[in-house]
Amino acid sequence: MAEPVLSLKDVAVFQKENMVLNDISLDVKPGEFVYLIGKTGSGKSSFMKTLYADLPLKQGNGRIVGFNLKTLPEKDIPHLRRKLGIVFQDFKLLPDRNIHNNLLFVLRATGWKDSGKMDTRIEEVLDKVGMKTKGFKFPHELSGGEQQRIAIARALLNDPELILADEPTGNLDPQTSVEVMKVLQEINKTGRTILMATHDYALILKYPSKTLKCDGNKVFEVIQKAG
Ligand SMILES: Nc1ncnc2c1ncn2[C@@H]1O[C@H](COP(=O)(O)OP(=O)(O)OP(=O)(O)O)[C@@H](O)[C@H]1O
């Protein structure tokens, strides 16, 4: 059987010395689409931050896309992040350059050198999110939904094994949320694994999938009833 892309054993999540979550043991397998739900302040973002090593793993054991979170040296964090695609609620595009150059910036920062290959890759990821003609636009010239598609395209640049999306539809209206969700579903269908924090229950109903819940300092799988 394929190795999990994410495997946690007895993990606790901390914000400084405060324990936010504990006793987390779970596996995410290649190709899964997993939701992470929970009330405001229940620890979804802290959980995600631990996975991309923005918060250190101080307790328990965790492996993600082949990296050991417990023993990960600081110098390896960029390598880990290159194998992850991270999407945030607030898009985090660079406002001072157009979309093409936003994506070029990431490719250069992650070691790409050949300008022909970089242009081809940018075209490919923009095409995947239906934004092929928007490379010349600046972020402020795009709608929220379009900016999030670009942020998803940016997350795809280095062909990540796992996409971590922290409330990717949190700033979008319901219709635009569904459009962004369709893009994520398409990406999942091509075999990529996605872990998405959300509190948009309408989306979960429309696109049911494995769901983890943060509640009472724990993370557990919610078993959905059929029908
Ligand atoms: N930078 C920080 N420093 C200290 N405590 C923090 C920090 N960020 C979050 N916390 C605390 O950690 C707990 C979990 O917060 P977190 O942001 O992970 O929750 P969340 O489920 O993502 O919430 P939301 O849905 O509002 O984004 C909260 O009690 C919060 O106050």
From TrEMBL:
SUPFAM superfamilies: P-loop containing nucleoside triphosphate hydrolases. GO terms for molecular function: ATP binding. The keyword Transmembrane helix does not apply. Pfam families: ABC_tran. Residues 6-226 form the ABC transporter domain. It comes from the Bacteria. Keywords: ATP-binding, Nucleotide-binding. This is ATP-binding cassette domain-containing protein. It comes from Robiginitalea aurantiaca.
